[in-house]
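WARN retry 2 of 3 for item q-0093 after timeout on previous attempt; input resubmitted unchanged.
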Amino acid sequence: MVPYKQGVGSASGNYMQVFATPPSVGTSYDWTSGGFFSQRSYGVQADIEENVAPKFTNLPTTKTYPDTTPTTTIMAVSVTDDNTGDLTTLSVTIATHTDKFSVSSNEITTKTGWTWSVGTYDVTVAVTDQCGNAASSTVTIVIENSAPDISNLPSSSDLPEDVTSETNLKDLTVSDVQTYTCAISTMEPSSGNTRFTLKQAPGTSVYSIYSTENPTFSYSLVPQYKINVTCTDEYSLTSWGEFTVNIKPNKPPELDKLPATVSVSAKTTTIGTEVFDASATDPDSSQVFYNKTCSPDPCPFEINGGTRTFKKNLTTHSEQK
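OK item q-0093 returned
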C-alpha cells in the first residue's frame, strides 16, 4: 500500500457499494448507485506470478500383482504445485478404465463389483489446479497370471502286484483362478502308460490317478512307477508334480502249525474224524485257499477248509504234514 493523496472534486473520490450477497469472482457489478464518501486516492502494487500447471511426484509408475491376490488399494498419488496458493485446491481424476478403478482423496482403488482379471491396464491420471491448469501421467497396473497349484504332489502310494480292479490312488488338489486341465505327461517306465490313467470322476472337477483294470503288475519286473502330472491353464501356463507308485510283492500265506506230526489209530478212527486243524494267515488277503499233497498215494485223508479228516477206513496209514 502506498500513502494516499487528497483529491479535489467527486472525480477523484471514493465510492462505497453495499451488496446484499457476497460478490463472486469474475462477476461484473454496476457502481452507479455507489455512495461517495471521500476524496482520498490510493495506489496498490501487486506482483503477479505466472500460474503454472501442477505436477505428479510419484508418476508415472507400474504396479504388478498376481491374479491370485485381488488388491483393493492400488496406490496414493502425490501431487505438488509451484504456485503454493493452488496446493489446497488441486483435484485428481482418472480418465481411463473408469469401470475398473476410481480415485478419491488422491488414492486409486479398484471398483466394487469388478472382477480382478489378468491383463495390463494403463490408467491415465490427471491433476488440475483452480485456474484450470492440468497435467496428466500414467499408472500401469499389471495383473499377472499364476500357474495352477498342485498342492498335494509329490506324493506316493503302495499297490499290491495282484490287484485286478480299477483303483483310485490319488485325488489331486489343484487350485487356479483360471480354468485348467490336467494330464499325465510322462511315465517311467513307459509300460505304465497302459496301467495308469488320470481322469475326473463323473460330476466332479477333481482329477484322480487310477490304476487300470487288470493291470498285471509284476514286482520282480517293475517294482516302481513314476507318474508325471501337468496342469495347464487357459493362458498356457503349466505346473507339474510327480506321483510314485510302489508295487508290493504278493507274499505267500503262512501255515501257523506246520510242520507237525499226528498219529491216529487205524482201528478206532472213523471216517470223517478231524485229524488236524491247519490254520493259515496271509499278509495280503483275508481269504486263504487250502490244498494238499499226500504220500504215499492213494491218500486216506481229505482237507476241508484247513481241517484234515479221514475219507476212508485206515489199517496201517500214518501221515506227516
